[in-house]
Design a protein that fits this description.
single chain, alpha+beta, BirA Bifunctional Protein, domain 2, 7-stranded mixed β-sheet, 3-stranded antiparallel β-sheet, 12 helices, binds 3,4-dihydroxyphenylalanine
Length: 356
């Protein structure tokens, strides 16, 4: 090999090594293989050589050409992979803190439902949902509220025209039909909560015609009033993030439970402070599922028993966050939502406490 070729080989190898990106490598390629490239020039010049040299010269040049082409291909693969790595690293910097979200917050109602689901989830309950358009058997009859019972008027029911399976259609006035749907869909035991929208013809600063409740149902062979009290005390203390929250059970009446109890928590009427010991505030209704309700759903009350409860979502949300007016919950005023909304990046996590 003459000195010229040896030098070309060395210089080409050095230039390929030095190319720090794909574009630079392309320039090296062009300087060798392009129209006016050094290798192209040498290959063309073979024809001017004496016939006896051409063959050997040609073979030698071709060998160098192959060698250089291979080196370029290899370098290209390396540079391309590096470029990909750089691009990916640029897009996903896992060390960056999450950006504050410019828009999109969780509505306080959704937040409360998520917290309730987290707490009862930890107590072994699952979440069920039912339709907002119910029939009067599931909303009233099966719950032991007879045809002319005042509760049917008390609840200011919205009736819909027409019937379904011969039953009147209603916008559910409470989530309690969730109990009926659960118990008629599968055999016991049950541990469910049913959050959702409910409707009553009622509208002022503390009542909205559409509002939210959560129903709870636990039925097994030996569920007692003790379980009811334990679950609800644990729930209220976790929800309000007050381990010593005073809780009181007060005898009451609901057609679908026997005995029935209203549940109160300690607070201060003047300051609104939750957990104070000066006053009591009614927070939810509960009781042992009435044997007739079990029987209505085909669950044998001699074998199964349990408790149920129902709670207003808006009310506990207002108490927890010091919100005094119910109306802005449903007015979609962005200023209110920005003030009371929750970051979607911080879902409720029980062991961190739900103080908010
Ligand atoms: N359904 C009742 C209401 O809307 C609340 C309620 C009370 C539900 C007692 C229950 C219960 O499951 O046991 O006022």
């Amino acid at each position: 090999m003459d000195d010229n070729l040896a030098a070309l080989r060395e210089q080409a190898a050095a230039a390929i090594d030095a190319a720090s990106n794909v574009d630079a490598l392309k320039d090296v390629y062009t300087s060798l293989f392009g129209q006016r490239g050094r290798l192209t020039h040498l290959l063309r010049a073979i024809g001017q050589r004496p016939a006896a040299e051409r063959r050997e010269r040609g073979a030698e040049l071709n060998r160098i050409k192959e060698e250089i082409a291979q080196a370029i291909t290899q370098r290209h693969t390396v540079l391309e992979a590096a470029a990909w790595d750089a691009e990916i690293a640029e897009r996903i910097d896992v060390t960056l803190p999450p950006r504050p979200s410019p828009s999109g917050l969780i509505h306080p109602i959704s937040r409360t439902i998520a917290e309730i689901e987290a707490i009862f989830g930890a107590l072994g309950f699952s979440v069920a949902e039912g339709p907002e358009i119910e029939d009067d058997w599931r909303n009233f009859g099966a719950l032991n509220i007879p045809e002319h019972h005042p509760a049917r008027q008390d609840m200011d029911t919205f009736y819909l025209p027409g019937r379904r399976d011969g039953r009147r259609r209603v916008l559910r006035t409470h989530t309690s039909p969730g109990q009926i749907r659960t118990m008629t869909s599968r055999p016991p035991p049950y541990r469910v909560i049913v959050p959702g929208r409910t409707y009553r013809a009622d509208h002022d600063a503390t009542h909205s015609p559409m509002f939210h409740q959560v129903e709870g149902l636990a039925v097994d062979r030996a569920i007692t009033l003790g379980h009811l009290k334990g679950c609800l005390i644990d729930f209220l203390r976790a929800f309000f993030d007050k381990p010593l929250l005073p809780v009181r059970f007060r005898a009451s009446y609901f057609p679908f439970t026997e005995p029935s109890m209203e549940v109160d928590i300690g607070w201060n009427r003047q300051t609104g402070e939750i957990g104070a010991e000066s006053d009591w505030l009614e927070i939810l209704g509960s009781g042992m599922v009435h044997p007739r309700v079990l029987a209505n759903c085909g669950v044998d009350p001699r074998e199964w028993q349990g408790f149920a409860f129902g709670m207003g979502i808006e009310r506990v949300t207002m108490l927890k966050h010091g919100i005094t007016d119910l109306r802005p919950f449903f007015e979609s005023d962005l200023r209110w939502l920005r003030h009371y909304g929750f970051s979607p990046l911080r879902p409720p996590i029980l062991h961190e406490g739900l103080g908010g």
